[in-house]
Amino acid sequence: MRSSASTFGEMMNIPEYYTGKNVLITGATGFMGKVLLEKLLRSCPGVNSVYVMVRSKAGQNPEARISDMISSKLFNRLQDEQPCFAKKIIAVSSDLTKPELDLSMENQRLLADTINIVFHCAATIRFNEPLKDAMQLNVLATQKMLALAHKMNDLDIFVHVSTAYANCDRELIEEMVYPPPVEYIKLIDALDWMDDELVSALTPKLIGQRPNTYTFTKALAEYLVQQEAGDLNVAIVRPSIVGASWKEPFPGWIDNFNGPSGIFIAAGKGILRTMRASNDAVADLVPVDVVINTTLAAAWYSASQKMNRPKSIPVYNCTTGGINPFRWGDVENCINMTFKTNPLEQAFRRPNLYLRSNPFTNQYWTIVSHKLPALLYDFFHRLKGKKARMMKTITRLHKAMMVLEYFTSHSWVWSTDNVASLMASMSPEDKKVFNFDVRQLNWAEYMENYCMGTKKYVLNEELSGLPAARKHLNKLRNIRYTFNTILVVLIWRVFIARSQMARNIWYFVVSLCFKFLSYFRASSTMK
Fold first, then answer.
1. What is the DSSP string of 442-470?
2. pLDDT for 21-73, tens place per residue?
3. Are the C-beta atoms of residues 397 and 272 closer than 8 Å to each other?
4. CA 502: distance to chain centroid?
5. Which of 110, 129, 191, 390 could form a disulfide with 377 if both were Cys (CB 3.0 to 4.6 A apart)?
């Protein structure tokens, strides 16, 4: 890839490239997909149409789902700047798990004759999805999308959104497609006749050193793209742990409990007190707007270089760890500080998350800090005739943490030469509008905005409720201090104060406290 900063002078800028183009997006109703849609329409106002492949769900047809999505807070800025933006969005009824993507013949012809750019973002993000389902959504759907792309008459670029952890069984992950341990064609054929029980038994052997079916199938999908792209112009973007927005469309935007967001909320509520993680491991969080800006720029660059594209598919490791590292111990501090200053409403306990690398220590504190309080809480709720649900919440939380343990306990070395080269190819104006330079990222500020984003956009809590939330947190602190004092007194009286020496120490401490209080009261009276 060319790395000279002068190359931007030879190419049109990014908004100019997208002017008049017809774009197809899969996964547009997902977290990254909707941010991609919003950013594309807002920053590239000349784009002609954006086709979004959506299936009917929960009684809603594709048009109704898109209408609901674009009425969310994410699109408020776009609505203000371009009130008629919705006219450019065309919903296409489709199901990526079905033959020929469940597209009608009319829609197949429409897309073949119209589309210039494809962003394939759709995937299952459930880490422990059964292998058959993960293959269906992450591998076979990609194969069908490539087959559709081959029919497109004026396709400039096909961008496949993968994950930086597709090859997490390696310590050094370069910007290249690695051959997987299993031939995807043979695996597809085998899964076709295997029953679910046999597949489940074979899954640990198949995924090998990878922690779950998600990373395994994303690696297979990358290799499939390489093998079946043929003469298509293709690029692969690999984000790491995608978090709330950094700047766009506004700081801290997030709309789901997935990944770290659910962990942050549980810590803010005081439910999560201990977690298995290495304080020194790099938390490779990457803001969602950084990923989207990289994706849009990658499509622009690859399309602009179509005539003299490289032999190998360009891969972009969209990560922060090697450029601007931020460790899990720092994440812990930021969460605790932010939620103590700006607490969530109706917190269960004061925020006080501890990360522990020792599994036995973490297990002990899980019982003491999570399970026992949850059991007591549910017991008192049952006495009051209320529904007990805290233990169920704790169980779900523990399952989520077990999935994340692998990523919070390891660090990787990422090659990001292609990302640096891509940035160097951009004009100064494009670097501002499509900023993905994570060297500029202030982690403390970002984390505060992230935590506040979960409060505002996920829990829908108004900032006007902060005084009441702080008052509630002070009440919880006083209850905790009172409980701890009573507990210490009981332990001393019951277990320790059985010897004369222990009693003497006890009375001495009480007498000293009494004298101190008397002195303080006398000093106050004299003043």
1. -HHHHHHHHHHHIIIIIS---GGGHHHHH
2. 999 999 999 999 999 999 999 999 999 999 999 998 888 899 999 999 999 99
3. yes
4. 54
5. 390
Assign domain 5-251+283-324+411-441 to a CATH class: alpha beta
Taking a C-beta distance cutoff of 8 angstroms, is the pair 278, 358 a contact?
Answer: no
- In terms of phi and psi (left: phi > 0; alpha: psi -120 to 50; beta: otherwise), the region of 267 is alpha
Integer CA distances (angstroms), 65 to 72, 95, 112, in order: 11, 14, 24
Residue type, 82: Q
User: Looking at per-residue confidence, does 223 or 514 come out higher?
Assistant: 223
Task: Find the Cα–Cα–Cα–Cα dihedral 389, 394, 396, 401, rounded to 10°.
Answer: 170
CB atoms within 10 A of CB 358: 10
List the structure tokens of 504. 């003497």
Distance, CA of 269 to CA of 347 (rounded, Å) = 4
| Percent composition of the chain: helix, strand, coil (DSSP 3-state, to 5) | 55, 10, 30
Distance, in Å, from the CA atom of 361 to the CA atom of 400, rounded to the nearest integer, reads 19
DSSP SS3 for 97 = coil
DSSP 72: S
Element (H, E) at 414: strand 413-414
Interval 454-473: pLDDT, tens: 999 999 999 898 999 999 88
Rg of the chain, C-alpha, whole Å: 27
Q: What is d(CA 104, CA 97) in angstroms, rounded to the nearest whole number?
A: 15
CA dist list (Å): 11 to 4, 45, 157, 390: 13, 19, 16, 58
Give residue for tokens 């910007």.
Answer: 175
**Residue located via tokens 């497609």:** 177
Domain-by-domain residue ranges, the chain?
5-251+283-324+411-441, 497-527
